[in-house]
Each structure stands twice: as C-alpha cells, then as structure tokens.
Design brief:
The protein has 121 residues and is mainly alpha-helical. It is 28% helix and 7% strand.
Length: 121
C-alpha cells in the first residue's frame, strides 16, 4: 500500500450526531471483502436504503454531488472514539492511518460551515 500523501475529493456532510458504529457499516457486512467496489454500498447501508434495497433519496449519500464522496465530515461521536480505540488499540490515530481511516479534528464551527447546520446535538 502506498503511503497516504494527499486526497482531493468531494466531502459529504453527515449531519447525524452520536452515530452508533453499526450504522456506519452494519456488523453483518464487516467480514466481506473490502477490495470489491460494492463494499462502498455498505457505508450507512441501513439509513441509505429501504428494506427492498431501494435508495432513500433524502439521505445525503444518495444525492448528487455526494455519490462519489471520499471524505466524510461528521460530528464527534463517543461511540466512534470508543470503537476506534477498541479496534485499533491505544494508539488509535496512528493505526487509523494504516487502515485508511484518516481522522481530522475540526472545531464545531468548521463542521457547521461544511454541513450548513448549527452545532450538532
């Protein structure tokens, strides 16, 4: 794997607070091959798609220009920090980079500017 240097891509604002990690990628998909293009469909799967597999048009990842987004901007979630620490160990941030999850700390005002919303609740 090449070292991470720079990513220029569309950023999608996920305006959900305290996101449970099972909403990010439901547990039933975690053992699937991450190298197949279809893996990206599992991201927020249960809020992106209805029970029949149809897209929910109101969800941001189903809207242009966010369909091809490669950066997620979201509020801090205690569940995510715990999951990140428990999966990657005590040096969570360093290990996140090794696993293609590149965290960045943003101030609430910066998140609000990207998402167009007020402070997350």
């Amino acid at each position: 794997m090449a070292p991470f240097q720079r990513l220029t891509a569309v950023a999608v604002p996920i305006d959900l607070s305290n996101v449970d990690t099972d909403r990010v990628i439901p547990a039933r998909f975690l053992r699937r091959d991450r190298d197949v293009p279809e893996y990206s469909r599992f991201l927020f799967h249960d809020v992106r798609f209805d029970a029949d597999g149809g897209e929910r048009p109101e969800f941001v990842l189903n809207q242009a220009p966010y369909r091809g987004a490669r950066i997620i901007v979201a509020a801090e979630s205690p569940a995510m920090k715990y999951r990140q620490s428990s999966i990657f160990g005590s040096n969570a941030e360093a290990n996140s980079f090794k696993n293609s999850a590149n965290p960045a700390d943003l101030e609430i005002a910066e998140i609000s500017a990207v998402t167009g919303s007020g402070a997350p609740s």
